[in-house]
Amino acid sequence: PTRGVKCLASTGFEEILKERLNESVLQVVHIDKKELDEEDEDVFEEPLSWKPSLLKQRFANTYKLGPDKMFSYGAVSRKIEEFLKGKLKDVKYEGKRCKTLSLSMSDDIKYLIKDMGTGRYKIIARIFLGEKQGQGVTIASRCVWDPEKDTWCASVFENSSIFAVAMVFAVYFE
Fold first, then answer.
1. What is the CATH number of domain 73-172?
2. Which pLDDT does position 28 carry in this prediction?
């Protein structure tokens, strides 16, 4: 094999995984500052920082099998319509601008809906923006979920040069 490249035939998959894990493991030893000599040059203080995404939060089990309050379809639909009208009323279609606009709008809608007090519902927001040129558009979505607890709503907005379809999915997280 080439230098620096390991072949799966010569070493097992488990050995490669162990080696990769060993390369990424840091050993932290706690030493009391009283035990250190002031002249010791090998020891230095460095703050440890962890990415929040690496630390998994653990919650106590509540054994809830259903939501305290059902997702309010009507209120969410009205909020989305108001949001779309406010954001897109004077917007002209530009491909690159609409790409970034749809990404930021989906995040804005997600936080707007979460502020309404959705509880344990996971919110997924999707925005479809397109240029209005007399064409027909069909947008479809498939999901696997519990029809008793999970729901969705959609709103449509149009002006002279652009159309927008906002879809919000609310999936109950037990």
1. 3.30.1140.40
2. 53
